[in-house]
Design goal:
The protein is an alpha/beta fold and 231 residues long. It folds into two domains: 113 residues, D-Maltodextrin-Binding Protein, domain 2 (3-Layer(aba) Sandwich), CATH 3.40.190; 105 residues, D-Maltodextrin-Binding Protein, domain 2 (3-Layer(aba) Sandwich). Strands 1, 2, 5, 6, 7, 8 and 14 form a seven-stranded mixed β-sheet that branches. A five-stranded mixed β-sheet has the order 11-10-12-9-13. A two-stranded antiparallel ribbon has the order 3-4. A hairpin with a 5-residue loop joins strand 3 and strand 4. The N terminus and C terminus are likely disordered.
């Protein structure tokens, strides 16, 4: 049985103009600080803010290392809504985007920004609760499906539903932003897309007792070929 996934590369993003490329590093060094737009603050294990005001997470570690390598003493975040990340970058509100932004084909071709070498890969899945009666894609009919805000999910959802003879008219889509696990466990939705094997199954480990993890989240594995989106 094959699972269906969307393989995405998350990267650091910068504006894609020759003038920016010529002046950006000098401007950042002159300011003495590198500012990153972030629309995912508080999302473990990526980046979060501790009670003492410090940051944690592997993206924070990457950010600090980036500052060291370009010779800037200070790095900091501008916390914003996800939808403002690219417009804000192009308006020079921040120097880079460091917010787990995937290098989708649409963004690469049309957003007018450049992506760094990917620093991690996301494998997308449908996830359900461990005791859910949903055992196949066909069982999604009439169910509430949670999603976040990434545009690539449209193609993903259409493809998995088509495999069972369904369309999006057969389900109810619920935008739960990035609170996928919370929405699933609370019963707000019956299933969620964006179930990254290396993210959504890590989040419960960080927030719930280890002995119940296996029972609360299960990956739904449609028997259809993978969809892969490359940067």
């Amino acid at each position: 049985m094959k699972w269906m996934g969307i393989l995405l590369a998350a990267s650091v993003s910068v504006t894609a103009t020759s003038s920016w490329a010529d002046a950006c590093l000098d401007n950042i060094k002159q300011k003495g600080a590198l500012l990153a737009g972030n629309g995912l603050m508080g999302t473990k294990p990526f980046v979060w803010k501790n009670e003492d005001g410090t940051y944690g997470g592997f993206e924070w570690e990457i950010f600090q290392e980036l500052g060291k390598r370009i010779g800037v003493a200070k790095v900091d975040y501008e916390i914003t809504e996800w939808s403002t990340l690219i417009p804000g970058l192009k308006a020079d509100r921040w120097d880079i985007i460091l917010s787990s932004m995937s290098a989708t084909q649409e963004r690469v071709q049309n957003a007018g920004i450049e992506f760094s070498t990917p620093y991690f890969l996301l494998i997308d899945h449908v996830i359900v609760k461990g005791d859910s009666p949903i055992q196949s894609v066909a069982d999604l009919k009439g169910r509430k499906i949670g999603y976040s805000v990434a545009s690539f999910q449209d193609a993903y959802l259409d493809a998995i539903l088509k495999s069972a003879g369904l369309t999006r008219k057969d389900i109810t889509e619920v935008n739960v932003n990035f609170n996928l696990v919370t929405a699933l466990l609370s019963g707000q939705v019956d299933a969620a897309i964006d179930g990254y094997r290396n993210f959504e199954l890590i989040q419960p480990v960080l927030e719930y007792p280890a002995d119940i993890i296996i029972s609360i989240i299960r990956i739904l594995q449609p028997c259809i070929p993978e969809i892969r989106i490359h940067s």
